[in-house]
Specification:
heterodimer, A: 412 residues, alpha+beta, eleven-stranded mixed sheet, two-stranded antiparallel sheet, 16 helices, elongated, B: 230 residues, alpha/beta, five-stranded parallel sheet
C-alpha cells in the first residue's frame, strides 16, 4: 500500500511538490528560529562565563558588553590603566582582567590582555606556550584554522576591529605566534591574544613600566612620565566577584561615583534577548501559522484527491483491501508528505543557518553553527508528522463511511 | 422464504457455486430486483440479462456481498453472504470473486502491471511477477504493460480489467456490463477473451448485461424483468 501511496503522490506531482514545499518552509522557519535563539543564548552564556561585571568608558552598557565580552561591537572608549589597579583593590573583587582592543588580523580581533583571560573562559593550549613577552601572540582555534598560522609565524595587525587585508597595517611591529589554543566553542576561538603592552607598543604608546624604568635611569622628566602613563589605557576591565556583596554594591557605585561605566553581562544579555525575543516570538507565531496552513493545505489536497478517488477506494475494498488497509494507505500519503516536508525543512533550516553563518560575519562571530542539532527539532518534526497524519485521517475516515455499492454505482 | 441455513449444504458437498433462494431486494418500499430461486454450477458461463433498471447491478452487489438482500439469501462457495460478518464477507469476496466493471475502475496512478500486482497482493498476500506477465500476455497487453489506464484504449482497458479480475484465480468472475461501451467487433472479442481466460483458469463466469449482441453466446441465462411494483 505504500507503493500505491507513492504512486498517487507521483500522479499529482505538482500538488505534492507544493504541499511538501509549504510544509518545508514552515519547518525550516521554526528550525531556524530554534537554532538561532538557542545557539545565541548558549553562546551568550558560554562567552560570559565567569564574567560578573565589565568596566569601561561611559556609553551604552549593551555596547560595552557586546564589544568586551562578545567582541561583536566597537568599544565605548578607553579607560585609564589605573582602573585595573583600583578594581583589584576593591573588596569582593576576585579578578580584574584588562582588555586592550583596537586592531585585528584578517578580521580576527587582537586582544591585549593577561593569561588569566583564556583561563577564565576555560581555554587551554593545543600547542606552544602562553604569551609572555611583548609582541608574542596566542591564537584561538578558529584563527588557526582560518589563517593557517603556525607557531613561530609572524604577522602584522591592521588598524580597526574588523580590518581585512586592505586596511592600514602596523608593519613595524609584527606579532609572533607562540601558542595555539584548543577549540572551546567560545568567543576566544576567534581571538588573537597578546599582552596589553603589545597593543600599546603597536600604537606607539609607551609602557608605563618601561617609562618608569627609563626615568629611573635618568632619562625622562616626571611630567613626561605622567603624560605617558596617562596615555596608557585599556578598553575595558572584566571583573569576577569573590563575594555576592560586591555584585550588589560595585556596579551601582561605579556608575554613580566615577567617570567609568559598569555593566553586568547577565542583565544586558537578558535585556537584549528580551528585545530580540519579541521579534523572535512574532516570527515563531508566523511559522506556526505557516505550519497549520501547510496542514490545512495537505488536508484540502487529500480531501479533494479522495473525493476524486472514491471509486478507487471502493474498488480497493472490492478487490480485498480491509478498512484498516484503506486508512493506512491514505494515512501513509499524509505521512509521506509530512515526512518529506519535515526532512526538506530540516535541510533547508540548517542550510540557511550555514549560509547565514558563512556570509554574515557577525553571525559567524556569534558562533552560529549549522551542524548543531537541538532536541526541540524532534518536537517540530513530530508536530509536522502529526499534522500530516491528522490531515490525512479525516478525509480517510470520511471516505470509509461511504457505501461501497453506492459509490461504485455512482461512479459507473 | 428459506432461512440462510438451508443454503449451507453446498459448502461441503459438490454443489452449485452460487445459489439464490427466494431472492429479492426492495428499496424505499419498492422491489428493485426479484430472482427467487436460482443457481450457478462451477465452471458454467451464465448471462444475467435484462433492461436498464431491472436489477442486474443490484443482483451483482448481492452476489459479491456488497449489498444485503431484503428477502431471501444467496450463497457463494457454500457461504451465505448475508450471514457473514463484514470482515468474513470481505475475505470471501477477496478469495473467491473477481469483478469486472463497465467503467473498468483500474487504479489510474498505477501501470497495468502494478494494477494486477496490487490485486494479487491484496487477495493472495504476495506478488507473482511471472504470473502477472503471463496474464498480461494472455489478454494481449504485453506491449502496454507499463502503460497507465488513461493511456489505454477502451478495449485495452477492458482487457486489463479482465486480467486484474482473473490474476487472483477467483472461482467466480462477475462482469457488469463489460461490453456496453464497445462496438460489435470488440464486444465479440471481449466475450471470446473472457470465455478463454475463464476456461483456462477454471473460473465460473457470470456476466450481467442488457447487450443483446452477446446473449447468444450463453446457454445459461437468467432473465430479469423490468422493475416490478411492490
Amino acid at each position: 500500500m505504500i507503493g500505491l501511496s507513492l504512486a498517487y503522490l507521483k500522479d499529482r506531482g505538482l500538488n505534492t511538490a507544493l504541499n511538501i514545499l509549504l510544509l518545508a518552509l514552515s519547518v525550516a522557519s521554526l528550525v531556524i528560529l530554534l537554532l538561532f535563539s538557542s545557539q545565541l543564548e548558549n553562546r551568550f552564556d558560554k562567552d560570559a562565563q565567569g564574567i560578573d561585571m565589565v568596566v569601561g568608558a561611559k556609553g551604552s552598557p549593551l555596547q560595552l558588553i557586546l564589544s568586551s565580552v562578545y567582541h561583536v561591537d566597537i568599544p565605548t572608549g578607553n579607560v585609564p590603566l589605573d582602573t585595573v589597579v583600583l578594581l583589584r583593590r576593591q573588596l569582593g573583587v576576585a579578578e580584574a582582567i584588562p582588555l586592550a582592543l583596537g586592531d585585528s588580523f584578517r578580521s580576527f580581533r587582537i586582544v591585549g590582555t593577561e593569561p588569566a583571560y583564556p583561563a577564565l573562559l576555560g581555554a587551554s593550549l593545543a600547542d606552544g606556550r602562553m604569551f609572555a613577552a611583548k609582541m608574542e601572540a596566542v591564537i584561538g582555534a578558529d584563527v588557526a584554522a582560518r589563517t593557517g598560522a603556525n607557531l613561530g609565524q609572524r604577522f602584522v595587525g591592521g588598524h580597526g576591529m574588523s580590518s581585512g587585508d586592505d586596511g592600514p597595517k602596523h608593519e613595524e611591529t609584527p606579532f609572533i605566534v607562540v601558542g595555539r589554543l584548543k577549540p572551546t566553542g567560545t568567543v576566544i576561538d576567534r581571538l588573537i591574544l597578546t599582552r596589553v603592552e603589545s597593543v600599546w607598543g603597536v600604537h606607539g604608546i609607551e609602557d608605563p613600566g618601561e617609562d618608569h624604568h627609563a626615568d629611573h635611569h635618568g632619562g625622562e622628566s616626571a611630567e613626561a612620565h605622567a603624560e605617558h602613563a596617562g596615555a596608557a589605557e585599556v578598553t575595558a576591565v572584566l571583573v569576577r566577584f569573590g563575594s555576592p556583596i560586591a555584585a550588589v554594591r560595585l556596579p551601582g557605585f561605579i556608575n554613580r561615583q566615577t567617570n567609568l561605566q559598569a555593566a553586568v553581562p547577565a542583565v544586558e544579555v537578558s535585556r537584549l534577548l528580551a528585545l530580540v525575543g519579541v521579534g523572535l516570538d512574532a516570527v515563531r507565531a508566523f511559522a506556526v501559522l505557516l505550519m497549520l496552513t501547510a496542514g490545512l493545505s495537505i488536508f484540502v489536497a487529500l480531501l479533494t484527491a479522495l473525493k476524486e478517488r472514491e471509486g478507487d477506494m471502493a474498488m480497493l475494498r472490492v478487490i480485498g483491501a480491509s478498512r484498516a488497509a484503506i486508512i493506512g494507505q491514505v494515512a501513509s500519503e499524509g505521512l509521506i508528505l509530512a515526512s518529506a516536508g519535515a526532512a526538506l525543512g530540516l535541510l533547508l533550516g540548517h542550510g540557511v543557518i550555514g549560509m547565514a553563518a558563512a556570509s554574515i560575519e557577525q553571525l559567524r562571530a556569534l558562533g552560529l553553527n549549522a551542524l548543531t542539532f537541538h532536541p526541540g527539532e524532534a518536537l517540530i518534526v513530530t508536530s509536522a508528522l502529526g499534522i500530516g497524519l491528522i490531515a490525512a485521517l479525516i478525509p480517510a475516515l470520511r471516505v470509509l463511511k461511504n457505501d461501497i455499492a453506492e459509490t461504485l454505482a455512482n461512479a459507473r | 422464504m428459506p432461512s440462510p441455513d438451508t443454503l449451507t449444504h453446498s459448502k461441503t458437498a459438490q454443489g452449485p457455486l452460487v445459489e439464490a433462494r427466494g431472492l429479492s431486494h426492495a428499496r424505499d418500499g419498492r422491489t428493485v430486483m426479484a430472482i427467487g430461486d436460482w443457481q450457478l454450477e462451477p465452471g458454467a458461463h451464465a448471462l444475467l440479462l435484462g433492461p436498464s433498471g431491472s436489477g442486474k447491478t443490484t443482483f451483482i452487489n448481492i452476489v459479491t456481498g456488497l449489498l444485503t438482500p431484503s428477502h431471501g439469501a444467496i450463497s457463494v462457495a457454500g457461504e451465505v453472504m448475508s450471514a457473514l460478518p463484514p470482515a468474513a464477507r470481505d475475505a470471501l469476496r477477496r478469495r473467491t470473486i473477481g469483478l469486472v466493471f463497465q467503467t473498468l475502475r483500474l487504479i489510474p496512478a498505477l501501470s497495468v502491471t502494478d494494477n494486477l500486482a496490487l490485486a494479487q497482493q491484496l487477495a493472495l498476500g504476495h506478488v507473482d511477477r511471472a504470473a502477472i506477465a503471463g496474464m498480461i500476455d494472455r489478454v494481449g497487453l504485453s506491449h502496454r504493460a507499463a502503460a497507465r489506464p488513461r493511456q489505454l484504449s477502451q478495449g485495452e482497458g477492458q482487457r486489463a480489467a479482465i486480467a486484474r479480475a482473473l490474476i487472483t484465480r477467483p472461482r467466480l468472475v462477475v462482469a457488469d456490463e463489460p461490453t456496453s461501451a464497445l462496438d460489435d467487433a470488440n464486444a465479440a472479442r471481449m466475450i471470446d477473451l473472457m470465455f478463454d481466460v475463464a476456461d483456462a483458469t477454471g473460473a465460473t463466469l457470470l456476466v450481467a448485461t442488457h447487450d443483446g449482441r452477446i446473449a447468444h453466446r450463453f446457454a445459461n441465462r437468467l432473465n430479469l424483468m423490468a422493475p416490478v411494483a411492490a
